[in-house]
Specification:
By secondary structure, this protein is an all-beta fold. Helices cover 0% and strands 50% of the residues. The protein is built from no helices and 2 strands. It has a two-stranded antiparallel ribbon with strand order 1-2. It is flat, with a radius of gyration of 13 Å. It starts with a strand and ends in a 16-residue tail after the last strand. Keywords: ATP-binding, Nucleotide-binding. This is Amino acid ABC transporter ATP-binding protein. InterPro entries: P-loop_NTPase (IPR027417). One of its GO terms (molecular function) is ATP binding.
Length: 42
């Protein structure tokens, strides 16, 4: 069983798509990283 599961998440800010059907499953003991340049809104 996943600790956290996201399925087909989409999001727009001011008409600009920032997430397009993103899916993610985090199991116990997993490590995930969100990377990007400074100031990009992570």
């Amino acid at each position: 069983m996943a600790l956290l599961e996201l399925k087909e998440i989409s999001k727009e800010y001011s008409g600009k798509k920032v997430l397009d059907t993103v899916s993610l499953k985090i199991q116990s003991g997993d490590m995930k990283v969100v990377m990007g340049p400074s100031g990009c809104g992570k």
